[in-house]
């Protein structure tokens, strides 16, 4: 009998690799895993399977949630946490050679790398599924999936919502992927950023071509007054050439308790984390603060991805 799982053996490099039905299947499977874990079930779907996590950039949530997901499914993990300095990349090994090598050690590979296009290069080299955990300022498709899962869990739907994205929208790969994903649900996007950190014009044009209403502004309070969800991103110091340039924008937008209380009722506050100073700790106690729940949801979504690409679920 033919499997209804559309992801068997697939690479997940860009959110654009997935159509709406495939995203729906991932979110539904994540929901089933969440329910099973809440019921105390022990899962062994990936017993005997090995995940390799290879991170050329620092990561806490993404790497640990993937590793947690694999362990919760009964699988094993091999890991290179600081691949840039502690792997053969420091000796000049190419991504192609790394992929050919890793396919002999693991059944699935998760990579984070500072170069845009690096995940696609690895996927072209390796014969096992490759999942992109962030390629520079390019994309972060698994973050977009867990963001969709969070929005649906918090708001009860993905349809017809107004989502404000605030902060560094130029370098923020999480917002690039999430914006593309929200196109399937015809969201209304409000992009709030300084002009120098605006979302790339070609990405905005692509979103509008898909029928999305996209509004650009530098007024955060005006955005919050209309938004059902606000997705906050940090100003990324590592993406600036000088500290002085970074300091020019650091703290330009800060979500405070008062800002949330003055916003549209029921506003959901999200952040891919880590935060620096862009969300005050006084927001944490509000029911609107979803960012720590968001991080937890990432385990269920990544469980779904791993199980699906490895063909462990129908």
Count of structural domains: 2
What's the total helix number?
Answer: 12
* Termini Cα gap: 10 Å
Decide which structural class fits the backbone. alpha/beta
CATH C-level name of the largest domain: Alpha Beta
Rounded average pLDDT: 91
What is the N-to-C order of secondary-structure elements (H for helix, E for strand)? HEHEHHEHEHEHEHEHEHHEH
Question: Radius of gyration over alpha carbons?
Answer: 19 Å
The amount of beta strand, in percent, is 5-15%
Low-confidence stretches: none
Q: Main sheet, how many strands, which sense, barrel?
A: 5 strands, parallel
Structure, described:
This protein has 314 residues and is an alpha/beta fold. The chain folds into 2 domains: 15-140 and 298-309, 3-Layer(aba) Sandwich (Rossmann fold); 141-295, 3-Layer(aba) Sandwich (Rossmann fold). Helix content is 39%, strand content 14%. It is built from 12 helices and 9 strands. It has a 5-stranded parallel β-sheet with strand order 7-6-5-8-9, with helices on both faces. It has a 4-stranded parallel β-sheet with strand order 2-1-3-4, sandwiched between helices. The chain starts with 19 loop residues before the first helix and ends in a 5-residue tail after the last helix. 45% of the residues are buried. The mean pLDDT is 91.
